[in-house]
Amino acid sequence: MVKAIRVEQLGDPQVLKWEDVEIGEAKEGEVRVRNKAVGVNFIDVYFRTRVYKVPSLPYTPGVEGVGEVTAVGVGVTDMKVGDIVAYSCQPLGSYAEEHILPALQLVPLPPSIHPIVGASIMSKGLTTRYLLQQCFKGVIRFRFMDQSIKPMDRADYRLFFYESV
């Protein structure tokens, strides 16, 4: 059992309850993560207030966070217990001590980024990247301000800027 914030009925913040829940074990292609920090996102409020449809009640809110891998399911070869990872994805459930997620949705968090910062930038970084790629398709070139940052270091979106070509 782990502690989690649960929503049993939709409504204002008073519907959030701190409860014990069973989350199970990581299955094939999944990773169990002990959260170090979670992002509080407008999407969480949208689910709780019926702007977005909730898969089912009760549920644990939250879509983004940073945590330590505590277990890996069958077939997961690119992560191991002890790795620090960031995520911004379904299934809902980051408002919990631990969370089970698809391994393909996780990115390693560089040691230079504090977990609190990592948990707060994932959705914003992914949204920024998506909008730049969709709105300026073929017009944007990414360049890193710090040349030591590898372009594949997907978690550190703070270090890039864009320019017209």
TrEMBL record:
It comes from Glycine max. InterPro entries: ADH-like_N, GroES-like_sf. This is Alcohol dehydrogenase-like N-terminal domain-containing protein. Keywords: NADP, Oxidoreductase. GO terms for molecular function: mRNA 3'-UTR AU-rich region binding; NADPH binding; quinone reductase (NADPH) activity. GO terms for cellular component: cytosol. The keyword Ribonucleoprotein does not apply. Residues 28-110 form the Alcohol dehydrogenase-like N-terminal domain. The keyword Flavoprotein does not apply. It comes from the Eukaryota.
